[in-house]
């Protein structure tokens, strides 16, 4: 399998091919770079569906701010990419355009909600893709598809013209094969001057202890090996306790589900237009009380204070991106349970105002599927993360591997 049409059909990563590309500057820092956009990011004159039958024929009048910035930088925006409906979910199986398939194994999920974005990069359909991340929706698919993804800090990248999930914790982030390209795109998205990477290992990496008890052994082995790469470069690995981590996922989900219900409550008048598991999430959100939401927001502020104090002791935190091997696609699956498990290690960092970077860390010893790690930095720490990630990728080759289902 090598042609673009074959790979597109196999992965179902692309919703709309944009030919010719969107208007763009003739030159710039991203001149000639082929970019795909998650189909929740507005493109003037090009259908933007959000993966939902509600928006099957929606054509925006204007570009999202990130699209305008990419165009000014010379990027070639050539595709709108499939996603979980309304960017809700971590498997990308609930799109009105059909499920996205993982190019490493077409019987498995690509992660979500930016599943089409990660799959398109891994399969070579585009060089860069934009995703959005609320509870892991850039990092989880990047890890599942063996590519690199950045969740920038809150409000670092503008989200105007991007359909929200929960604006309190939403971000827009780039996915690419390697850190170098992620860094170039991030600078454009954030409106910053281009910066030469300065690859270097962090001085001290905190390794949270709580989660490592129930990891898949294949995941645990590879993330431990990644830690040793940093240690061999002079990094001190420090076991740490993260205050509030045990309840962080529940706190995040209370905030997100409340936001989902507020956003979609009027659409409940036509429930048949929702994908079933999206409808379930909206209905769950309607049960969140104002008191519960206020309590969760207070817990988020307390969690942030604890992280701020922790980052006075360590430079970054290292965790796996996923606690399990990439799961198979299943029509009989309890999607809420699967999503909760997949988000176990990504969700807490969505309560944090700072950035998290997902990096390929190996291939699972049993399944051969990609395994990813996460590095999380303090608020304003994007450059620190990107330099650390670039250093790691100078010493590993996992990001260079291509799946069987890839364009030649």
Automatic annotation (TrEMBL):
Domain Amidase: 25-386
UniProt-recorded Gene Ontology molecular function terms: catalytic activity
Protein known as: Aspartyl/glutamyl-tRNA(Asn/Gln) amidotransferase subunit A
Provenance organism: Modestobacter italicus (strain DSM 44449 / CECT 9708 / BC 501)
């Amino acid at each position: 399998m090598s042609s673009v049409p074959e790979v597109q059909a196999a992965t179902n990563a692309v919703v709309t091919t944009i030919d010719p590309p969107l208007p763009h500057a003739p030159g710039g820092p991203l001149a000639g770079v082929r970019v795909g956009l998650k189909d929740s990011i507005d493109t003037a004159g090009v259908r933007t569906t959000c993966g939902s039958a509600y928006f099957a024929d929606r054509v925006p009048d204007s570009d999202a701010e990130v699209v305008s910035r990419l165009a000014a930088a010379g990027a070639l925006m050539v595709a709108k990419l499939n996603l979980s409906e309304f960017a809700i979910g971590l498997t990308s199986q609930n799109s009105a355009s059909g499920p996205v398939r993982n190019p490493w194994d077409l019987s498995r999920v690509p992660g979500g909600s930016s599943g089409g974005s990660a799959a398109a990069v891994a399969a070579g359909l585009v060089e860069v893709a934009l995703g959005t991340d609320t509870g892991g929706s850039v990092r989880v698919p990047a890890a599942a598809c063996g590519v690199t993804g950045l969740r920038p800090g809150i409000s670092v990248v503008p989200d105007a013209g991007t359909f929200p999930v929960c604006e309190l914790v939403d971000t827009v982030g780039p996915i690419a094969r390697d850190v170098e390209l992620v860094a170039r795109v991030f600078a454009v998205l954030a409106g910053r001057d281009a910066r030469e990477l300065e690859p270097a290992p962090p001085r001290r990496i905190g390794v949270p202890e709580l989660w490592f008890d129930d990891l898949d052994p294949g995941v645990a082995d590879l993330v431990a090996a990644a830690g040793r790469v940093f240690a061999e470069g002079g990094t001190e690995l420090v076991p740490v306790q993260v205050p509030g981590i045990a309840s962080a996922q529940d706190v995040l989900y209370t905030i997100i589900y409340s936001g989902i219900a507020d956003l979609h409550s009027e659409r409940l008048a036509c429930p048949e237009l929702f994908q079933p598991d999206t409808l379930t999430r909206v209905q769950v959100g309607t049960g969140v009380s104002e008191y519960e939401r206020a309590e969760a927001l207070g817990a988020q502020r307390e969690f942030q204070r604890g992280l701020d104090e922790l980052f006075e002791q360590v430079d970054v935190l290292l965790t796996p991106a996923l606690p399990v091997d990439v799961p198979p696609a299943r029509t009989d699956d309890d999607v809420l349970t699967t999503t909760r498990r997949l988000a176990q290690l990504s969700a807490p960092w969505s309560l944090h105002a700072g950035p998290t970077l997902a990096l390929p860390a190996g291939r699972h010893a049993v399944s051969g599927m990609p395994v990813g790690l996460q590095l999380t930095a303090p608020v304003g720490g994007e450059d620190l993360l990107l330099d650390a990630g670039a250093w790691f990728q100078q010493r590993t080759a996992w990001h260079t591997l291509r799946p069987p289902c890839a364009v030649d």
